[in-house]
## 1
Amino acid sequence: MKKIYRDLFKVVLPVSFQYLMMSLVSASDAFMLGFIDKDSLSSVSLAAQVAFVYSLFFGAFVYGCSVLAAQYWGKGDKETVREVLAVTMRYTLIVGVVFTAATMFAPGMIMRIFTNDPVLIEGGVRYLKMVSLSYVIGGFAQVYFGILKICDRAGLSSLIGSLSVVLNIFLNAVLIFGLWGFPEMGIEGAALATVIARVFETVFMIILIFMKKCISLDIIKTVNPAKCSKIIHKDYWKYTVPLLLNQLGWGGGVTMYSVIMGRLGSDAVAANSIASIVRGMVASFCWGVASGVSIILGQMLGRDELEESKKAGGSFVRFSILIGAISGAILLLITPILVNVVTLEGQALYFMKIMMFMQAYYIIGGSLNSTIIGGIFPAGGDTKFGMWCDIITLWCVVVPMGMIGAFVLKLPVLVVAFILTLDEFVKIPAVYKHYMKYKWVRNITR
């Protein structure tokens, strides 16, 4: 078991650091735009939901890649891993083009989904037009971030991602405030910084490919589906479709949280934005554990180490609860510091303090469920249960309750916010019951 945890932390530490650095970008956006005014912070917070929705697509594609590629990598079949990479890249870039076109040509229509405030819509439109190219450019790098982790180069993935974040934060300051002779661009500056950072990641990945530091992309198989193995293509979609529906169902529900909060006023939006960003930073290690568990268990299952995988899975479940509890305690400890740092005032500041407490217990359930649903189950190709679990919990329970509470019963903002933190705990009994069936303990390689 010690060796398994050593292997796990080789993946978890760099991946968690990368997640942390990525969340710092959102934090720097919020912190810097908060100095301009509350409306700039709120409008960009809502507009950033588009990037979140896009991440659901490429996240599902990369997860599907991990399900197959991790087991084939553990088996030693690198050529099949390369073919899975080509299939993943094809669909990620197609969706990236769609998101780029939508935000470039119809940003106003998109912003009206999230809010009816004309000031927030105007700010979000300016952001989306400028940031639109980042979707198609960033998709390429995101697929390679995933494949580097599978191919035992998680540290390299973390290095590139971290350098990109440092560049993004630096450019945020320069372009938002107009430092060193650059124009003061405000909201558009934050968007342009994001685009430049995505270009940096893509160029870095291309250099690594030419240096043979990672698996090269088969361009012919990427652009021509007929050149790919029908069996691999079928297997890829067999495991990816449930993951995609899961991501869209879960992510759509989370996006509905923003839609609900976006209609409760800018104080609620700003407070929820800060609390969610801080939770995301602290939860980076939880997400890193889920990602590492999926890769390590996938490689073990690909080597037919079934009993060892079952024991390791139980240990990972207990570990995830411990990590969640520690993360919750950290959120409570940093709340007093956060109160003195953020630029929020009055009711918005009060909302944020209470929402931080809610995030502290929410993260415990999130840590457990992300490890089991996002790590253990996909490692063995068990991708359908998570889809149904998340969709039913969010769309049949929490989102309807939140909408009724906000728009029918007209409940206070904090009561609505509490309702929207129930999803992780509602599904725990069903998740653990399914885990104990051990349907995920299987080798899915051909």
## 2
Amino acid sequence: MFIRCYGKVATEPYTMPYTGARVYSLEELCYYIGNNIYTITEDFFTKSLVEWLDKEADQKVLANKLDTMITNKNKLKDLVVTILCACDYYREFEIRELMRVIDDIVNLPLHEKSKIRADNYMRAGLYAKSAAAYRKLLTGAYAVNFTPEAYGDILHNLGIAQFYTASFEAAERDFKEAYARNHRAESLHHYLYLLLMQGRKDEFERECIEHGMNNAQLEAIRNRFNEEKMKVQKRIIDDEEIERFKEDLRKAAGSAI
């Protein structure tokens, strides 16, 4: 998407703390906030954002104002409005609508806010933090506030975090329990994929049959797993080839000297 920028376009982008998206101007920052408003929390407004606005985006006045507001712990709405009103990317009625959305977020129950924060950790690839946050939701006082389906969805996300930070077995248990609660095919398939990853082919087949799958569905899951496995192996090979190529270049440069 093309975004018209009237201010300075930064040489170095600002990288979003959760999604890893990069912006090069104040207008792009406003666009990002508007299109990700449900994930924006007070944690979004950091000293590094202030520094980028000051040094890279040439927004010294805005940077100073935000710095003071962050220090004074101003409300989320105030922080968002300050940035959105610093340029003409959004029209007044659009800003008012975004403020209404923020009011909805601010008024969310604490367990929903905590879920948003855990999801943000997940988006950022902070799997250990997200796992801890999801466990707190599942075992703490907030757990009673979730429907069985929502509880299962949190378990599913915990399974993803466990996959990266703990073990296949831990992730497998989470996906299996997630499916028992949310009945989502995605959770079931993740559970079955993990059985295949661990070489437990007989158990994989028994579980497929137990969940009412026919031979065609069983083979479809197995084929999808093998396709994804080949993609991962190819990426590993490509990365190794790139490293070998870099090493050859370094050796060539050394011999040329």
